[in-house]
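ARCHIVE RECORD
Type: protein–small molecule complex
Small molecule: tryptophan
Source of inputs: curated submission
Record status: active
Notes field left blank by submitter.
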Amino acid sequence: ELSFNMGSLSVDEIEAAVRMLLSLKLLYKTTTGQDYQAGLPPRDLVLINNGTSKEEDEDFVDPWTVQTSNAKGVDYDKLIVRFGSSKIDTDLINRIERATGQKPHRFLRRGIFFSHRDMDQILDAYENKKSFYLYTGRGPSSQAMHVGHLIPFIFTKWLQEVFDVPLVVQLTDDEKYLWKDLTIEKSYEYARENAKDIIACGFDINKTFIFSDLDYLGTSTGFYKNIVKVQKHVTFNQVKGIFGFTDSDCIGKISFPAIQAAPSFSSSFPQIFNGKENIQCLIPCAIDQDPYFRMTRDVAPRIGQPKPALLHSVFFPALQGAQTKMSASDPNSSIFLTDTPKQIKTKINKHAFSGGRDTIEEHRKYGGNCDVDVSFMYLTFFLEDDDRLEQLKQAYTSGELLTGELKKVLIETLQPLIAAHQERRKQVTDEMVKQFMTPRKLAFEF
Ligand code: TRP
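STRUCTURE (tokenized, with ligand):
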């Protein structure tokens, strides 16, 4: 209600003032995602900006699309600024090394996990002998996982080992049913198949709980309560702002973010945390999942829960180039965990985008470009030896090493790695899957 002395104002002036007020209210709402209330300052402003400003930027990143016009890939420094996260710098890496007493994983040394939220708080707590837990996940959209899907799991396994903490892995079969052309039964089946690949990464069965949403949501005494709490504190307008939902998206999609948020709260797993509500959570994930957790972090204090901390990775580039990420739906863009040594060789030789020159003479003269060369990029993910990687870089850049030779190194790196994965996956029995997926106490006292 407007209450001021209208005696000295014309009708036009009053109408203009009302229009102005309404447009300010609207602006307030689109910026903050909250309805304007007189006298109440906005809560957490960071939430709404998904960083998808259209004017300046070529890069587009959300949970469904990663696109850039730059052959070097997404500009991750810009993404940090836009998303409002923090860079994983040398100081933080050194601190992780001091806290764990372990050489930092190559994903940290090489900036593959490059961004974080509140990792210093996790380390503060850890140094004071306070435990935390890890949470990561996977949307089981098909049976076929590719090497890019392994990145968060390889890193999570390392974190579990060096910090010795519990891990929960969410398989969002519900999400894939909602988003893809899949039956419930199929996506549930994919969840179990994918669980085998995840288990094959070497997680400790006594410290890891893997769950399918379709299974666990209905049986847990804590999970659904957290979903409803999150749902109560996020408006339709906010999820539209964060995820780009429209009025014609089904309501399952619109409420799904609450389901991905809930495992960030320890009370979703009473059997693991003995009903405790305040155990801190650390989420390793690819940066495209950040919108879910920006939302989660905004809600957390309002439902009396600690905000989850995050470690963000870059995307795993498609064979065709770093303009987009590897996609399981395009067989030629990916190297699958089921590929034979021969398929790996052919795919890399045929499809891996090269930063080399057109002719041998030119290559020798001008050298290759590691910044856009997909084979080199893959080696930074998978070749453990830092010195060897540096030698390859110099030799390729100087023109001494040819594209075919670089590709050969990659092929010889990936073939044994994938063969070993296949071997470990074969050892994963249905009985083991069942055990990993049974809600139970883990080897930790809370
Ligand atoms: N939405 C993710 C996907 O489509 C799956 C997921 C659920 C996830 N919870 C997560 C990923 C937590 C990382 C961290 O793959």
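CURATOR ANNOTATION: The pocket of tryptophan is lined by residues 135-139, 170, 172, 175, 260, 283, 285, 289 (CB under 6 Å).
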